[in-house]
Design goal:
Elements (H helix, E strand, L loop, with lengths): L1 H12 L21 H7 L7 E7 L9 E12 L2 H18 L4 E7 L7 H10 L2 H6 E7 L3 H10 L15 H10 L2 H11 E4 L6 H4 L3 H4 L4 H24 L7 H20 L1
Parallel strand pairs: 2-3, 3-4, 4-5
Antiparallel strand pairs: 1-2
Helix pairs in contact: 11-12
Length: 267
């Protein structure tokens, strides 16, 4: 019995206790949707540890409902399960009510979403999701997200006359067979990255920490990034021989800077 309890505790340690919306497998709204999508949103599902998903209490500046995803450094699990959890929140709003939405994704670590995960999204999500996704904001983006945004940039030119040229035309036709152009253009037009929480303020029309009730751990991580950026700038100025304010204090902050860098790398 003790051994069984130990295994049960270990299994639950990597799961979230958040209750997710459920969708009945016999729901009429599922009739015209792909079977892979139906399997995704029906049945039991536990979010991985370190992830919280919820609707914002207030809409954004344009009056659109916002889904918030908090993804911290304690994340342990599969990216697919996070996506499934998001879809369960969105299904009624997007499929049944046919309404627009905004996605705001908060990170406090370097979480990686690879090509395999993106391809899985392409084939499983109904087209209504991209049609109704008005903005996808990523706060504290990882390098993976930055590179993803950069890689989407060339697709912006495949919708104009340049795509009809002799060499690019066949590439576009081939990509369209897999819906790559439409998906890439849609993501390029809605994806925004924000290095700090304060940069969300123009989108919300107010302080995001108060309007969205952002957890303290993400606010603290935001401040850590500010302090680390200041230390890096001071160190760069010292290396170039530029005068800095408060040189006597820089040496005293060296230890703190090392701690911040170590925490950021670990996340």
């Amino acid at each position: 019995l003790k051994t069984f309890c130990c295994f049960l505790c270990l299994a639950m340690a990597g799961r979230s206790t958040q209750q997710l919306p459920t969708v009945d497998a016999n729901d009429e709204s599922l009739g015209s949707l792909p079977g892979s999508y139906v399997q995704m949103i029906t049945g039991s599902l536990d979010l991985p540890r370190g992830v919280v998903i919820r609707w914002a209490q207030q809409p954004d500046k344009e009056g659109r409902k916002a889904l918030l995803v908090f993804w911290d450094e304690n994340f342990s699990g599969d990216c697919h399960e996070v996506t499934k959890g998001m879809v369960r929140f969105l299904h009624d709003h997007v499929i049944k009510e046919d309404k627009d939405f905004v996605l705001i994704w908060f990170q406090s670590g370097n979480h990686k979403i690879g090509p395999k995960h993106l391809a899985w999204l392409f084939w499983n999500l109904p087209k209504q999701y991209l049609q109704h996704l008005q903005a996808c904001h990523v706060v504290h983006p990882s390098w993976t997200v930055r590179l993803a945004q950069f890689s989407l940039f060339p697709w912006n030119y495949l919708s104009d006359d340049f795509a009809e040229t002799r060499f690019i035309g066949p590439v576009v036709k081939f990509a369209n067979r897999f819906r790559m152009v439409n998906w890439s253009l849609a993501l390029y037009n809605v994806l925004y990255v924000h290095e700090r929480l304060e940069f969300l303020e123009p989108e919300l029309g107010g302080d995001p920490v108060q309007l969205l009730s952002i957890p303290e751990s993400f606010v603290a991580f935001d401040k850590d990034l500010d302090r680390q950026a200041e230390i890096d700038m001071q160190n760069a100025q010292n290396q170039m021989g530029m005068p800095t304010m408060g040189n006597a204090g820089i040496g005293g902050q060296a230890g703190a800077g090392g701690d911040l860098r170590q925490r950021s790398g670990a996340q």
